[in-house]
Amino acid sequence: MIPAPFDYVRAGSADEALAALAEHGDEAKLLAGGHSLLPLMKLRLASPSVLVDVGRLSDLTGVRQDGDTVVIGALTTHHDVERSDVLRTQVPLLAHVAGQVGDPQVRHRGTIGGSIAHADPASDLPAAVLALGGSFTAISAARGSRTIEAADFFTGFLESALEPDELLTEIRVPAVPGAGWSFQKFNRRALDWAIVGVAAVSRNGSSGVGLVNMGPTPLLAAGVASAWSGGASPAEAAEHVAEGADPGADMNATVEYRTHLAKVLTRRALEEAGG
Question: Which CATH topology does 7-53 take?
């Protein structure tokens, strides 16, 4: 398929990108790595009239530690997230999950901010950030900067709390050195989207569990985390995985199969994370 016609603007700075978003509103879309947006455009599922290329904004890249928080620029590639020494020591779950995204070509071009903003329920990284209790920083020309908790960010299928004139600038996650963690996913082939995935982290008596492809949005498995923190065994806690979930059926799995698989992977994740 061929995308509908569009205009192209390369932003030289975040301010230029925000000005373009303010000018064009809903008709504009931000382009970073392009691995999420361009396939939608080719299928005519997205038809922006203006693409605003932010892929060369170096001030939105990099990983740094800010006290008890690790801050990741939205345009940091999956490869750089995976290879970051800060993340490998302070938030190893996130570094590991980034290394599971696609293939080397995708990881060298795709960005963590693009993956988050796309809000695909089948994407790995949103579930990991949810499990970690992370948050996002967004800015607009009209309202300035605001923080959005990951738990409030994903609002519907491929929909998020970002306003049309906002630019996602940072992903912020707690530093959890020494925490127990695990990421489990099942797919038919190495590069396929996960049929189901589970990200789990346990630290200082609290826990977080994020689910991949168990509903129209990336999900927090609050019932699992509550049971696990309360002393339930991994198998017992995993029985709560369907609470609040809304798994769909497709060519890869029925609802029943996806639910069963989620329980199996959740149990494995909790066992590996130290449940």
Answer: 3.30.43
